[in-house]
Amino acid sequence: MSNAIGGYYSYLEKNTKVFPCFNSFYAFLRDEYTQVLEGDRVKEKDFDINNFLYVLRPYYEGGEFDYLLNATENLNLLQERFIVFELDNIKDHPILFPVVTIIIMEVFINKMRKMKGIRKMILIEEAWKALMKEGFAEYIKYLFKTVRKFFGEAIVVTQEVEDIISSPVVKQAIINNSDCKILLDQSKYQNKFDQIQELLGLTEKEKALVLSVNKANDPTKKYKEVFISLGGMLSKVYRTEVSLEEYLAYTTEQTEKVKLMEYAAKFDGDIRKGIAAMAEEIRNKS
To answer: What is the dihedral of CA 106, 54, 2, 45, to 10 degrees?
Structure first.
């Protein structure tokens, strides 16, 4: 594989009219590299080029996934400040998910290593369990051990602490390299919090703080509490109180989201105007 890729880049240097994409790489393997293998008398048991081409065929022109790796525009993701990879629709796809996972890893590693003096952050949320299934664990482990050396941060968001516990490869890498721990309401774990306390390395005082979250809220105000621990040196419970506009922008309540989209539709899809109009109506009603 190493020789094939190296040979492809040498081929591109000599043939400047050839556009670098998967189609031309496949054509190079089929038309040029097979002759190299024959000349070097490489045996089929050492490298089966025909089987290799058969596996790659779906990504070549006319194949089922030919649209994935043959873009004609060069997107400079390195300079993009904010990139979102939405994986919900492909997290169970046996072919697309691994390909997109590789792209995500490559994009962030490039940012991490090449953008010197600029803070980089990768936040992995929701798709946690799916990522673990695809061998993404070793990458997460590598990230948490090295990202700070490159002025970066790695953040993992999960609704269930068991998600971290269930991955032995990742468990210690994340816990040991996460100075900042943020916990929301853990009431449902109240009777089995000892395991979480041990895993996260919380003191008895921190345990008491975590279990106090949302237990004595001011009934005259609408807010939620959150526990934040900074390296075990500073641990406090904070009140999170946002404006009505902020609440509408980030709410995950389905009925509210649907209503907000209806408001935005009145302004040609302008979500900001939709939020402002919905917030105004709520205030007028109250």
So the answer is: 140
Nearest to 240 by CA among 217, 220, 256: 217
Nearest Cα to 126, choosing from 256, 224, 252? Answer: 252
Count of H-run helices and E-run strands, the chain: 14, 5
From residue 195, alpha-carbon distances to 162, 212, 221, 224, 234 in Å are 10, 17, 33, 24, 22
pTM of the model: 0.70
Same domain, 87 and 170: yes
Range of the domain at 87: 78-178
Say yes or no: 174 and 186 in one domain.
Answer: no
Pairing of strands 152-157, 120-125: parallel
Q: What is the DSSP letter of 247?
A: H
What is the tens place of the pLDDT at every residue in 135-162? 677 777 888 888 989 999 988 888 776 6
**What's the mean per-residue pLDDT of the chain?**
87
**CA triple 45-48-50, angle to 5 deg:** 150
Question: Same structural domain for residues 121 and 185?
Answer: no
Q: How many domains does the chain have?
A: 4
CATH number at residue 119: 3.40.50.300
Q: Give residues with Cβ within 8 angstroms of 180, minimum separation 6.
A: 228, 229, 230, 231
Q: Tokens standing for 99?
A: 């390909």
Q: Among candidates 175, 100, 154, 168, which has minimal Cα distance to 131?
A: 100
